[in-house]
User: Fold these one by one.
Assistant:
Number 1:
Amino acid sequence: MSSRIGLLFGSFNPIHTGHLVLAEHFATRTDISEVWLVISPQSPFKVGHDLLPEAERLQLVELAIAGNPRLRAEPIEFDLPRPSYTIATLDALRVRHPGHDFVLLMGGDNLPGLPRWKEAGRLLAETDIYVYPRPGTELPDLATFPRVRVVQAPLLDISATYIRASLQAGQSIRYLVPPTVEEHLTKAR
Ligand SMILES: Nc1ncnc2c1ncn2[C@@H]1O[C@H](COP(=O)(O)OP(=O)(O)OP(=O)(O)O)[C@@H](O)[C@H]1O
Ligand SMILES: O=C(O)c1ccc[n+]([C@@H]2O[C@H](COP(=O)([O-])O)[C@@H](O)[C@H]2O)c1
């Protein structure tokens, strides 16, 4: 039987507890057996954003998930053309791991933009997508597509933007990120 692997794509600039709570939920309370956190060196919709070096973002994800056998840091997009198109990443992952069945994990806030993604039609035809509703955003019609499933998940109202702003203001990021990530980020300032 093939393993079902959830893919959480992001810039992880930096990873935070919101990502981790979500990944652990999907890996332990759904039919997904592992969640891979795919670090996008350059998201197509975030070109020009201020990003920590990708190697450092990867290192922070690895620190955050250390010791958790159900979570994995996946740097495959580092070797693919930029910006990082999800369809290209899925194609590459399916070649590398023919025995796995990949499921896209996505916040409801990302769903309205999905029709503008590269090869969105093929992506939707070939891939199961689990969408978790986020407060303040309504799910578009796309949520009724055959391969789209709405899955409730516990959410924390924090973002990487909030972590970066807190760091810049010299404010605490304790509990917003794991202690190892906090140590790295506050030492680097
Ligand atoms: N607190 C959260 N709860 C649930 N999903 C989240 C949360 N924060 C981010 N996500 C989702 O995780 C994925 C990767 O997130 P990303 O790396 O872009 O982090 P972010 O915190 O949204 O970053 P930024 O604030 O820099 O835009 C995205 O699909 C995003 O919607
Ligand atoms: O494939 C696309 O066209 C595409 C367009 C926008 C975003 N994405 C992916 O979605 C992920 C989350 O995007 P973002 O901009 O919210 O960080 C990120 O890893 C991107 O690579 C993918």
Number 2:
Amino acid sequence: MQSPDPPTPLHVQQIVKTYQQGTAKVFALDGVDQKVEPGEFVAIMGASGSGKSTLLHAMAGLIDVDEGRVKLAGQDLSQLSDAALTRFRRDNLGIVFQAYNLIPSLTAEDNIRLPAPKRMAAKLDSIVEELLDRLDMTARRHHKPGALSGGEQQRIAIARALVCNPTILLADEPTGSLDSISGTQICELLRNLVDQQGHSIVMVTHEPHVAMWADRICVLKDGTNLAELRTDGCRNPQSVAHQYQQALGGEVAV
Ligand SMILES: Nc1ncnc2c1ncn2[C@@H]1O[C@H](COP(=O)(O)OP(=O)(O)OP(=O)(O)O)[C@@H](O)[C@H]1O
């Protein structure tokens, strides 16, 4: 018998999110759709204020939306209680931030272990070993974040995000605090997670040379889907910048 198809990792349907700014109501998201397939790497681009972070936070269930639905691994997040949502997020979602958000007093290895629930105890050692190896961080496992470079800290943050084997990895400007060499290494690492491990990734970035590592680029404008760009695996920042510029109808530096 054939095994059933895996559920769609992430399906965002017509989501609207407003904020009150003084007397004005701001539509941070105004009817956004997005579907991420298994093993797909999607970048979200857009000008400052276009809604990128709000979309990522809505995808992560970190904020409630006013309208529409966020389905993660087939589960409508609005149907879960707060406690159930917290558990569901831990088991199905990995999140990586620009600022790494590691606990300074814990070693690299203990930061990776942090999100794992008790029921994983028996297999946690081997999972952590494998993550340290896969992310080339075994030699640095006993160091605290303050003794690691930015790129190394981000590797540990990615390992921590993967420790529960999530359905999807969300990354908010993961290279934003890194020099270009470390940033490229993190992009290569994310790409390998998709190509070699079959992970699904959504990454917010405003940089064409980072977005080019994705399979597909969703361009937001004023909280709406403006365009979908395909990278076709050619890793060409000029081509991405050109398509992005055309979509926005303005100048974008590479
Ligand atoms: N907590 C909040 N309260 C009020 N307004 C908010 C809040 N968060 C976001 N906004 C507004 O929603 C809109 C979208 O913001 P968002 O941070 O999602 O944009 P962005 O594309 O991520 O921007 P940037 O690239 O500058 O980070 C902006 O107009 C912003 O001012």
